[in-house]
Amino acid sequence: MGRPTLNSVAEAAAVSRQTVSNVINSPDVVSPETRERVLAAIEKLGYRPNTAARQMRTTRSQIIGLCIPPSGNGVSGVVLDQFLHSLTATAERFDHRIMLFTAADDEAETAAYADLIASVGVDGFVLTNTHHDDLRTRWLLERELPFVTFGRPWGAEDTHPWVDVDGAAGTRLATDHLVRQGHRKIAFVGWPEGSGSGDDRRAGWAAGLAAAGLGDGPRAAVFDGVEGGRSAAGRLLEAHEPTAFVCASDSLALGVTAELRDRGIRPGADAAVIGFDDTPTASVLGLSSVAQPIADVAAECVRQLRTTLRGEAGAEPATTLFTPHLVLRTT
Amino acid sequence: MGRPTLNSVAEAAAVSRQTVSNVINSPDVVSPETRERVLAAIEKLGYRPNTAARQMRTTRSQIIGLCIPPSGNGVSGVVLDQFLHSLTATAERFDHRIMLFTAADDEAETAAYADLIASVGVDGFVLTNTHHDDLRTRWLLERELPFVTFGRPWGAEDTHPWVDVDGAAGTRLATDHLVRQGHRKIAFVGWPEGSGSGDDRRAGWAAGLAAAGLGDGPRAAVFDGVEGGRSAAGRLLEAHEPTAFVCASDSLALGVTAELRDRGIRPGADAAVIGFDDTPTASVLGLSSVAQPIADVAAECVRQLRTTLRGEAGAEPATTLFTPHLVLRTT
């Protein structure tokens, strides 16, 4: 038997982890019977719920928590490896450690924060995949817990430290390059509106067209993946006959090149395609792509979090926006 | 200031982490002057060196250490994501956590073990990339520390628990399939001799040829990567004109298909190519490949380590060999 955790309380009370977390953080949303049962289990096991902020101020575990996203991110998954390695190596230089955990959604992730703080005494968190109405950052801010995000607080004020890559600058670089090559019909293949990074990448392409006096360009929004890129390219080719494609990801770009080839259009010769993320697959296939300085992002996340943990953060949250660069290959 | 660690001792004594570890574990290899300095720093900082085994038996941190390999594994990197996610999720079900660390080589990894045990009180370790003369497993065995490896103890007895995938069975499946398709000149593209998993994969191909009465087949050994696959395919085609290729990795297989295309040989139509690892890139490009049940491997690693930690392991180390399966696509 180890220390009692959210898991063991949940098991003892025959409820979910989320319910235990609710009893601790938002007791009103739990029925009185269930609440009783969970509180009894907490007492019986000696679980210390939500000693979070107190514990954080008095002791230092030197441990940083990171929620590892489910795999299946397609070819972009490799970017996570780079991020994890740089994060771990930088943390070690500062005598900190990275502890992994999983969570099915934002709410489960906040339950995991509470658990990690109570059971392990984690010092702070690095968050990835920020998005609009991010309840994780709200939850951490309310409790004044140290964290940093890889990703801007989309649609919200700069109320916490963040590190990000300027996606708009990346697609702008791609678009400017295509304009210089003489392309006039430059399409954008991206994701449905509403995702912070997706809208950001589309904005860079639109700004590039505007700067070149090319007005509105043709664009398609699909879910990420090779099939999405394929269908988007098909529709765009039939309606607008673009000669170049700026894509929000390498997966989309691979779909576009596949569709072009199927139609007898040679990527790199008859049409240009530029992806985003510079995955190993892009390198293998000769796909031009926008490269993010992922190792730098991870190192900066650790440095910012360390500043917070040492109580050396200024009045304004630290924010760092890295500029990506363009890797030109055969497409 | 957090707890003193190997790092802070190393810094205070102006020596490397390895030197501190040597002073603790093999003092004879360190000069008396350096030893003095390191011991003084240990005393001054209150570092608890090598309380390892003792600490492990009395307390449980519920933390499992995993050394994260440097990225740059090419298209195979994504397999690590799957492994990490499954490892973390399974550990959580048993109320354990995964802590990451980095190490440049085996010796640095053992120094990190000592540090993690002394500073964090890690319960045990999961090791990847086992190899001949693996000094990590020897180090852990000598100290009776709990661990499990993803990978067999190549060239050594089964002296510790391990989980692995039967690579030979995978290349045998690939070879048998090609034989059934009517191929008679089936080449193998693998790595230089001496790597456990590489030799294993080559053995499966050789066994498949022998079973079909095809004798010795043409083969080439190169370092992993697309360029290696390319040059191996070129040499094999010129010397032996094989019609099919079994490859030790998807990276090699991608190089083979690229070389075939450059020579006007259509993969899937004029020649068959089968990779190994079933990476997302293979899926995107329609490359046939041998798929490893990575999530199952990770989950089994946690289960075996848990058995050891609970003192429930039998007299013989637990060993689990998973069988891979063949994913046929267009090549």
TrEMBL record, chains A, B:
<dbReference type="Pfam" id="PF13377">
    <property type="entry name" value="Peripla_BP_3"/>
</dbReference>
<keyword id="KW-0238">DNA-binding</keyword>
<dbReference type="GO" id="GO:0000976">
    <property type="term" value="F:transcription cis-regulatory region binding"/>
</dbReference>
<protein>
    <submittedName>
        <fullName>LacI family transcriptional regulator</fullName>
    </submittedName>
</protein>
<dbReference type="InterPro" id="IPR046335">
    <property type="entry name" value="LacI/GalR-like_sensor"/>
</dbReference>
<dbReference type="InterPro" id="IPR028082">
    <property type="entry name" value="Peripla_BP_I"/>
</dbReference>
<dbReference type="Pfam" id="PF00356">
    <property type="entry name" value="LacI"/>
</dbReference>
<keyword id="KW-0805">Transcription regulation</keyword>
<dbReference type="GO" id="GO:0003700">
    <property type="term" value="F:DNA-binding transcription factor activity"/>
</dbReference>
<dbReference type="InterPro" id="IPR000843">
    <property type="entry name" value="HTH_LacI"/>
</dbReference>
<keyword id="KW-0804">Transcription</keyword>
<dbReference type="InterPro" id="IPR010982">
    <property type="entry name" value="Lambda_DNA-bd_dom_sf"/>
</dbReference>
<feature type="domain" description="HTH lacI-type">
    <location>
        <begin position="4"/>
        <end position="58"/>
    </location>
</feature>
